[in-house]
Amino acid sequence: MKHLIRGRTLSFHADPATTEHAYRYIEDGAIVVENGKILAIGGYEDLADAALPETDHRPHLILPGFIDTHLHFPQVQVIASWGAQLLDWLNIYTFPEETRFADPRHATRMAGKFLDLLLSHGTTSAVAFCSSHKASATALFTAAEARNMAMIAGKVMMDRNAPAGVLDTPQTSYDDSLALIRDWHGRGRQLYAISPRFAITSTPGQLEAAGALAREFPDCHIQTHLSENKAEIAYTLELYPQARDYLDIYETYGLLSPKTLLGHSIHLEPREIARMAETGSRAVFCPTSNLFLGSGLFDAEGLRDAGVVSGIATDIGGGTSYSMLQTLNEGYKILQLRGQKLHPFAAFHWATRGNALALGLENRIGTLDPGTDADFVILDARATPAMALRMERAETLAEELFVLQIMGDDRAVAQTYVAGKPMLTRG
Ligand code: GUN
Ligand code: ZN
C-alpha cells in the first residue's frame, strides 16, 4: 500500500557544522511511503497521483524521526529526584527503583508507557539501558516490536557496588545477555547492545564477560558510561589501580570500537580523547542530565576537532526531558558556557542523521532518503501561544528551527510516524 505524506520536508545529507550545503528543504514537499519504507521524496506536484491516498501536514515540517542515543528505560519513575549528584543519585534513587523491574508485570507496564512517551516526543528510535533483569529487556523489546520501532537495547550488566536486588554475576550476565541476543538481535527492527553499566558496578570478571560477548557478536552495539562526574572517576581509578585512565579499563577488556557508545564523556584526558578517535568509539552528550546532576560541560568542539564522533541524548532519568528539542535547547546552553555554538541546522542534524551516524545506521534511519525506513516527526513551530508570537518575527528556516530548538517540546510534535504509520491519536 502506497501513501503520500505532504508537508515542508527537511533532511540532511552532511554535517552543517563542517559542510556548507548540508540539507535539502522542500517548501511544498512530499514523501511516498510503501511497506514501511520511503519510496520517493520530492516536490508535491511531481509526486502527486490521483490514485495515492494523501495526508497533508502543511504548514508543518516533516523531518526524520528523532533518535535518542542514550537513556534508561527503568528510570521513568526516577526523573526529577531531588538533590544529589551522580553516585548518591544512583544509590539513593536509581538502584532501588531498578530493583522493581525484576517483576515482569511492572517491566511490561513501564515499557509500554516509556515507548509511548518517546513517540509523543517525536523520538522513533532509541538506545536504551534496561535493568539487570532479563525480563526488563524482554519487556522492552516486546513493546518495541509491537510498535515496529527500531530499538537498540540491552540488559545492564552489574555485579557489585549496588543492592542485591539489581546485581547479577559475570556468568548470569553473560548467559542472560547471550539469550537476549539470540532472541532479539536482528529480529524485525530490534538490535542488541551489550551493556556493562560502568566500571564501578562491574568486577574485572564481568568486564571480561562483556568483552567475550563483544568478540562473539561484533555487530552488537556496546554501551556504557565514561567520565561523567569527578567523584565517579576517582572511585573508578581506585577500583582499577592498574589502569592508565578510565577509558583504558574499557579498552583492556576489548570494549572499544565504532559500535561503542560512551555516555557522557565529559572529563577526559587528552590520551583518552586520542584513543576514542583511534578506536572509533562514540561519545554521547547528555545535556539535561549533565546540568541536572551537576556533572559538567561536554566539549563538543574539542571532541569533533580530535576526530571523535558524538551522539546527543536525553539520558532519562538523570535527564529531565524526553524531548530531543529540549535536549538541543540545553545542549545549546552548555555549549554557550564553553564558548561554543550549536546552530539550529547542526542541532537538527545531530538529533537525526548525526545520531544515526553515531550508531552506524545512517543507511536505515535518520534521513529522508529513498530506501530508508519511513520514521518521521511532524513539527509545528507555532504549537504554543508563545511560539506563535515569536514566529510572527521569524523570516528564515533557521529562525523557525531555532524557535523549535529553544521553545519546543512534545507540544510541537503534531504527529510521529513509525515505518510509515502514524502513531499519535492527537495529531
Ligand atoms: N552511570 C552509571 N549508571 C548511570 C545511570 O543510570 N545514569 C547516569 N546518568 N550515569 C550513570
Ligand atoms: Zn546513562
UniProtKB/TrEMBL annotation:
Signal peptide: none annotated. The keyword Hydrolase applies. It is an enzyme of class 3 (hydrolase). Its cofactor is Zn(2+). GO terms for biological process: guanine catabolic process. It catalyses: guanine + H2O + H(+) = xanthine + NH4(+). Pathway: Purine metabolism; guanine degradation; xanthine from guanine: step 1/1. Keywords: Hydrolase, Metal-binding, Zinc. Pfam families: Amidohydro_1. Transmembrane segments: none annotated. Its EC number is 3.5.4.3. GO terms for cellular component: cytosol. One of its GO terms (molecular function) is zinc ion binding. It comes from the Bacteria. Binds 1 zinc ion per subunit. Residues 62-422 form the Amidohydrolase-related domain. Belongs to the metallo-dependent hydrolases superfamily. ATZ/TRZ family. Catalyzes the hydrolytic deamination of guanine, producing xanthine and ammonia. This is Guanine deaminase. It comes from Paracoccus aminophilus JCM 7686.
